[in-house]
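Researcher: Predict the fold of Gluconokinase.
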Amino acid sequence: MDTPPDAPTVVVIMGVAGSGKSTVGVLLAQRLALPFLEADDLHPAANRAKMAAGRPLDDEDRRPWLVSLADWIREASESGRGGVVACSALKRTYRDLFRRAGAGVWFLHLSLDQATAHRRVATRTGHFMPARLEESQYATLEPLRPDEPGMTVDAAATPQAIVDRAARAMPTAR
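Model: Structure tokens for Gluconokinase follow.
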């Protein structure tokens, strides 16, 4: 299915680790026939090592990663191909950077209680983000605000239910 011409150019699936960003992002990208980017793939090696050692990133650590993501959003927007990106986007300033990078950026915030997020992260394998960093993500998280384009959904729902709800809510992507 092609993306409607006035649908959001780039959808950012945001939330803390363990909220299901990657799973939902892949499904939504397939539904909208858009390319998918896992933002973790753009983290510099030093960021991955720091998180793997149980130390949270600060804004200075995140800066090159955020710039890389903004560049991807700009390219996806300007090319007209659009895209879906799974990215924590924990702070409003990060989301503002993404909105300035491309027209039509829309956010899907996967909201999840901390105990469930911790349990999910603790049971996954092969990821550099340890469960002990979950608390720092919640401390940093600034939920999506009413003036930001997008919606917040309960990440405890099934991935398909989240995708269905988001697809119905996205401007003209019904």
